[in-house]
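Recall that a protein's primary structure is simply its ordered list of amino acids. Everything else, from secondary elements to tertiary packing, is in principle encoded there. The following example makes that idea concrete.
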Amino acid sequence: MNEAKYISPTTNGSPLDPATGLSGRRITRFSPPAFAHIPVMAEIVTETLSTVPSGPILDATIGGGGHSFEILKSRDDLNIIGIDQDLEALAAAESKLAGFGNRVSLIHGRFDDLSAVAKYIGKQKLSGFLFDLGVSSYQLDNPHRGFSFRNDGPLDMRMNPETQITAGKYVNESSEEELASLLYNYGDERYSKRVARAIVSMRPITSTKKLANIISDAIPARSKRSPGHPARRSFQALRIAVNCEIEILESSIREAIRMLKVGGRGIVLSYHSGEDKIIKRILRELAGLDISNSKYHPEVRHEKEILLLARKAQRASSEEISRNPRASSALLRKFEKVSEL
C-alpha cells in the first residue's frame, strides 16, 4: 500500500497540523492548466449533498477538482478532503481550488488508504463522500500517460507513476488465458479470447497505438459498427488491472461508510459493470436487503445502516452526454447513512 502524504494548497511547505503526523508541501512539479476534465453529473452530486450536515466531504478521487469545485461553491459550510494518487491531478486540483483557501486539503495516496483521512479528521465524522471511479479526460488524452487508444504513447496506464507494474507488463508477460480472462472480467470484452490470441501473436508490443490497432483488427467487422473505438474495452480492462481498482474498491467503500456521520451522504460514480455490481451488492446489503440469486426467494430485510436514495443507478441526461460523451457509461448510486451499526 502506498503511504499517503499530506499536501495542502495553503501551507506553502510548512507543517499543517502536528496532530496528523503528516507534513504539508506545495505541488510544483506539473503545470496544472493542461488538466482539462468535465465532472460527470455534477448537478446531481451537489443536489445530493445539499442537505448533509456541515463538515468535511471526502472526494476520494479528486482528479482535477471539478466535482469539489462545484461542492464548495454550492455551500460555504462544507470543506473538502481530496485524495488522488496522480500528482498531476493534485496539481490541477490545487490550482482550481486555490480560491477556497483552507477549506481544501489534499492527500497524495490511493483511495483505499483512508487512514490519512482518519488521522486528519480525528474523532470527527464525514458529512459526505464521493468516489468517481473514471479516468479523467486529461489522462485519456495525454499520450505520455499511456491510457489513450487514439494517441500513441508508451504502454503505461499507471495512475501513480511511482508504482512498478505497467500495462506493458500485462500485455507482454501474461499468458493468453490470463489476458482473455482480464479483458472479459474487467472490460466486458465480448471477443476477449480473439483479442488475447492476437495480442500474444504480435508480442512484444510497446506502444498504445500498436496495441489499439491489434485489438481493432481482432474485432469482427460487424461489431465495429457500434459507437466507440473497438479497443476501448480492452484498454479499460488493462487500466483497472494496472491500478488494482477492483481489488481495493469494496474495502474502500465500506470504510468510507463507516467514517460517515448519520445524516451524511455517499455518492459513487462507476463506468464498468464489474464495479457497479460490487457497489450495488454492498449498498443493498447495508440498506438491509439480502440479494437472492433466485427469483423464487423474496428479499430478506435486516437492520439497515444506509437508506438508498434511488433504487436504480442514475445515468447522465442526453443533454449532458451531448456535451460530454464520456458521461454515457456513467452509473451514479447515492445513499444516506441512517444509523450506526
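Residues 245-258 form the longest helix (14 residues). The mean pLDDT is 86.
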